[in-house]
Amino acid sequence: MRLSSPIYRLKRKAKILARDNDIRLYEALNQIATKEGFKDWSHLASNYSEATPAKKVMKQLVSGDMVLIGARPGHGKTLLGLELIALAEESNRAGYVFTLDYNESDVWDRFEKLGFAPKRFNRPVVVDTSDNICADYVIERLSKSSDDALVVIDYLQLLDQRRSNPPVDEQVRALKKHATDSGAIVVMISQIDRAFELSSSGLPSIDDIRMPNPVDLSLFNKRCFVHDGEVRIEMAA
C-alpha cells in the first residue's frame, strides 16, 4: 500500500489536526492512519518503519546489558530512552520507566509525542516517579514480575541525592548484578558535563559524563551518546 505522503509529512498533518480540533496527538495520528487505510498509527508505522536511532540501538541490546545514554539537555536522551521502552514489547519485554526528574504526566506526554499512548501498548508500561527510586527500589519492583524487563532509569546522577541511599557506584553494581542474573536490560540516562559545550567534539564521549560522585563507568558495557540528532553507540573495551 502506497502512502499519500511520506511519514514525516503525515506526522505534521496529525499535529495540525490535533491543534485545530483540540484532540490528543495520538488520536490525530490514528485518524491520519485510518485515512491511509490502516487500523491505527502503530499499524501504519509497523508497515513503514523508519530506521530510527532507537531501532538501531534496540537491535544491539541483549539480555544482561547495562547501557548508558548521555547527552546535554535538549538533545533527546530522554526521548531515546522512552522510544526504547516503546519498542520493548517487540522484543517480548516489559517496559519500566523510573524517573527522578519528571512527573508521570510529563512521561506520558513525551510518549504521545513519539506517537505512542497507553492503549498503544499490548502489555502495560510501568512509569514510576517515586522519590524513593534507587537500585534496591528498582530491583524490588522488578522482582515482582516474571517478565523479562527493559528498564530506563532517569537519571544516573540523581540516584544518590538522598543521603539514605547507598553511593551511586554501589547502586550501579547492584543493578549490573541484577541485569546479569535476571536477563534484564538496564538503560541509565546520564548528564554530560557542561564543559562539553566548549569543546570542538561533535559528540560527547565517556570522558564527558558528569561525575559529581565516583562511578565505575566500565560497568556499562554499551554506551550511547546523542548530540544534534546524531547518535553513536559504543561497546566497552
Automatic annotation (TrEMBL):
State the Gene Ontology terms under molecular function: helicase activity
Record's InterPro entries? Answer: DNA_helicase_DnaB-like_C, P-loop_NTPase
Which segments constitute the SF4 helicase domain?
125-210
What organism does the record attribute this protein to?
Answer: Ruegeria spongiae
Q: Which domain of life is it from?
A: Bacteria
Keyword terms of this UniProt record: ATP-binding, Helicase, Hydrolase, Nucleotide-binding
Cite the NCBIfam families for this sequence: PRK05973.1 (NF004629)
**A Pfam family per the record:** DnaB_C
Among SUPFAM superfamilies, the record links this protein to: P-loop containing nucleoside triphosphate hydrolases
Q: What is this protein called?
A: DNA helicase
